[in-house]
Amino acid sequence: MQTSATRLDTNHIPDRQPDLQVTVVRPGTAPQRMHALLLQQSERSIQIQISALLLPQDSLELAADPDAYFDQRPLLGRYRVLACNLIHEGRYLATLAPVTRAESDPAMPAFQEAEGINLYEILQVSRQADFDTIRRVFHILAQRYHPDNAETGSELRFRQVVTAHAVLSDPERRAAYDVSLADEDKTRHRIFDSLESSLGVQAEIRKREGVLRLLYTRRLTEPNSPGLTGRDLAEMLGCPNEHLQFAFWMLSEQKFVRRSDNNSFEITFLGAEAFEAEQANYNKPQVPRLPSPV
């Protein structure tokens, strides 16, 4: 099979340590993780040295050491096998091609791989962040969450960071994602579906939690513009602005929020601390308790 990669002289394979993490997915078997050595890279294919025979039906997911290819096209994502030949005992030369979105599932945008999580929040950058900022933050987070990092590695977080970078570093995919995000913003934080559901003590508690969550996220992702107006908060939470006045009063009295000069609301240090403490208690596993003796 013809590929765009140039022919490799297998007698002069560089003596380097494996620098690619490869996950091989085969039907009916558990995913197998191994390491490989990058030999050549072109626009349409790459060549790697690997210690196992790869089959045409194999689906591969590649992740490069972020330091190794920071100045090149990232070797991240799904690949298919074009060819794989034995070059030495226990060493195989494989030619791979990246799987395009149309080949994998043309109906599913790439950003859906992050399981509904806001891609800007994954990288903790502003929606106005430039490409250099996105690239720099990705480099830091990819090193932190790389599965080979014994202290902070997380395969799930690493995949999320990779997906976020792949979408936000591509102008066309980022533009499509921003359009979908604008539509999602209208409903993703909505906690009330009708006027009746926004009334009562429990509803007031939910309003305050919702306001703090939105302002916390805004401060985290938009540090240079951390405020939201009462109208913005009301629209995102799905209740009239007039019904948020009690929540604004309580949060202001607690010094959890403050009004900025442009009459928008911002979360304070105390508010952020209270929100994080509440989230920590919410995520803590609950220990069953026996009823008290009569």
In short:
By secondary structure, the protein is an alpha+beta fold. It contains nine helices and eight strands.
Structure description:
Mean pLDDT is 75; it is low at 1-6, 104-115 and 283-288. The chain has helices at residues 101-104, 119-123, 131-145, 155-168, 171-185, 201-221, 230-237, 245-253, 269-283; strands at residues 20-25, 32-41, 46-50, 59-64, 76-88, 91-98, 257-259, 265-267. By secondary structure, it is an alpha+beta fold. The protein has three domains: 13-102, predicted glycosyltransferase like domains (Thrombin, subunit H, Beta Barrel); 110-184, Orthogonal Bundle (Helix Hairpins), CATH 1.10.287; 196-282, Arc Repressor Mutant, subunit A, CATH 1.10.10.10. The strands form two sheets. Strands 1-2-3-6-5-4 form a six-stranded antiparallel beta barrel. It has a two-stranded antiparallel ribbon with strand order 7-8. The chain has nine helices and eight strands.
